[in-house]
Write a structure and sequence with these properties.
By secondary structure, this protein is of the alpha/beta class. It contains nine helices and eight strands. A hairpin with a 3-residue loop joins β2 and β3 (14-16).
């Protein structure tokens, strides 16, 4: 698989990374249009790649808090997938541990209650999700925080924490990245 990363190439400025524009997009509401555009283009490209790379090739894409709160997100996402001949296993939606912890009980039901969307929690290591939440939410993957992984294998505490998180994920039948 692969991960979709958004960049904005502004004339006379250069390439901007998400940290330089996503907060403004989120607070202004533009993130909804950007998110739809990203998912549509991602699915279009993925459908082409799957002809060459096989049906099991997938792409991960980040989902913002605003998208997660959108009551019609699951339906919109499903329509985008189907318009490109893809199923829900083709795109794995990633939500940060912070957003996941904030949105528990509010928005997750809209997305996962009626679909088989692959939902992954990224940046896991902050301890914001309880074991009960991990076991009861429709999460399929945990993606360890890069700051935790960056310290491996030299930092003993990071190694122990990574081992514990991997064991927890496996206990609940989750894939670990």
């Amino acid at each position: 698989g692969a991960e979709a990363l958004l960049r904005w190439n502004r004339p006379h400025v250069g390439v901007l990374h998400p940290l330089q524009f996503l907060d403004v997009a989120e607070t202004s509401g533009l993130i909804l249009g950007i998110g739809d555009w990203v998912l549509d283009h991602l699915c279009q490209q993925l459908a082409q790649w799957r002809w060459v790379l096989g049906e099991d090739f997938f792409v991960c894409a980040n989902l913002s808090a605003t998208q997660l709160r959108r009551s019609d997100f699951a339906g919109r996402f499903r329509r985008i997938l189907h318009s490109h001949g893809l199923t829900s296993n083709a795109v794995r939606l990633e939500v940060s541990e912070t957003v996941m912890a904030q949105e528990l009980g509010r928005a997750l039901g809209h997305i996962t209650g009626e679909t088989d969307i692959h939902l992954a929690v990224e940046n896991v290591s902050q301890g914001l999700l309880s074991m009960r939440n991990i076991s009861s939410l429709p999460i399929r993957s945990l993606k360890l925080d890069q700051t935790l992984v960056a310290e491996l294998p030299h930092d003993t505490l990071s190694a122990q924490l990574a081992e514990a998180l991997i064991a927890i994920g496996r206990t609940f039948g989750l894939s670990i990245v």
